[in-house]
Amino acid sequence: MITQDQVVGYLKVAKRTELQSLISTLETELGVTAQAPQLIVPQNRETEVEQTEFDVVLTGFTGKRVTVIQAVRKLTGVGLKESKAIVEDVPTPIREGVSKETAAEVAGVLEEAGGTVVIQ
């Protein structure tokens, strides 16, 4: 019987073609394949999901406050007093849970009026 040390000794001195032949024979005779082990990393399903709902948050204003108040009033449908409170109490969500397109439109209106906006 051949010892493990003898096998290792043979593998150290064998030529590349001999090793390839040995691998091929072992695959055929034993019904196995000689492949390097593959690292399987479980994927987090949540990271694959693209965000579909966005919040538009007014973080301040750089232009005239009155223009931003009017834009907030137009977008939210609240009265003048409530719109003024929203603008003065930044950061304040203007729209929550909207599509990406709607969030971009709302942000565009606010930025055009002089507001600074973050889409989350």
What topology emerges from the helices and strands here?
Layout: H1 4-13, H2 16-30, H3 45-48, E1 54-61, H4 65-76, H5 80-88, E2 92-98, H6 100-112, E3 115-119
Antiparallel strand pairs: 1-2, 1-3
Biggest sheet details: 3 strands, antiparallel
Unreliable sequence segments? none
> Kindly, what is the distance between the CA atoms of the first and last residues, rounded to a whole number of angstroms?
70 Å
Give the averaged pLDDT, no decimals: 84
Question: What share of residues is helical?
Answer: 40-55%
Strand content: 15-25%
Count the DSSP helices.
6
Could you state the CATH homologous superfamily of the largest domain?
Ribosomal protein L7/L12, C-terminal domain/Adaptor protein ClpS
Count of DSSP strands: 3
The CATH topology assignment of the largest domain is Ribosomal Protein L30, Chain: A
Tally of separate domains: 2
Outline the structure in words.
The protein contains 6 helices and 3 strands; from the N terminus they run H-H-H-E-H-H-E-H-E. The chain has helices at residues 4-13, 16-30, 45-48, 65-76, 80-88, 100-112; strands at residues 54-61, 92-98, 115-119. It has a 3-stranded antiparallel sheet with strand order 2-1-3, with helices on one face. The chain is rod-shaped.
